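Reading a protein record of the kind used here takes little practice once its layout is understood. The reader may check this reading against the record printed directly beneath this paragraph.
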Amino acid sequence: MASSSVPQGRPETERPQLLLLRPPSAALDEVLSARFELLKSWESPLPLDRFLASHAADVRALLVINLFTVDGSLLDALPALRFVCTTSAGVNHIDLAECARRGIAVANAGNVFSQEVAEYAVGLLIDVLRRVSACDRYVRRGLWPRGGDYPLGSKLGCKRVGIVGLGSIGSEVAKRLQAFGCPISYFSRCRKPQFPYTYVPSVADLAAQSDVLVLACALTHETHHIINKDVMAALGKDGIVINVGRGALVDEAELVKRLMRGEIGGAGLDVFEHEPAVPEELFGVDNVVLSPHVAMQTFESSSDLCQLTAANLEAFFSDRPLLTSVSLPA
């Protein structure tokens, strides 16, 4: 474990310094302010590079908010850094190899968001199949009296669901969809014998035998564009894509093209390849449900995240094991 001992010359009673480069939520700010001295870059009149230089010798812990990129250049500016704590479950915005090389420990949000994201994935799927958002727009625009009944949707029960990534989120999705009577198959880095679902060793094969693909895996070099044109072709013109993982898991341009051509049945997307930018072609399409990367956000998860983040930071500064340590490459 990286050492967090107090730098020479600093009284032991001082609150540990914590660097933040983006504003946290009000709730997290309140929790952290009571325990740590918060160094807020956005409140300083100095440019970021000079702000970092002014604290470079002392800062040992960095809190990452909203997928701020932690790369070699940032780490170069913080030579005393020994801990990076991110408020996200995913860590694709952090250069883990560089952290490992420099002896910097990393912690994430662990499973705090798993149930929320799983619920949201199911919600997106029901919305796409039953056209809930589209029906809402139909009524609000006053079209019902003139246009009559809205076109039929499709039921969720018995849909064959393929889950890409049967981790903490994917397994929660599977559990919920199984209750609807959906046969569950999955692709993951390895077979998960603790689960009663069918393992498929190829994403294309999984798509070929599924009505729905739910994406719940981490974004890595290996999973970038894991849903490509071949997988979409295998899924077919009636297939549904639900993405609550990361936008770049999908070849977004290819997905948009196929949605416009009617070569994919629909999509529920909470994440996007270049967010917050969203392909404008999707704005007027009724078989696509869009949301601004909020699957994990509830009052309950926000409270849990505050407590977990504070606990991880306190563990680091007390030289105790981290609660949600991220495995670093050797």
In short: The first helix runs from residue 26 to 33. The chain has two domains: 17-112+300-317, 114-290. The radius of gyration is 22 Å.
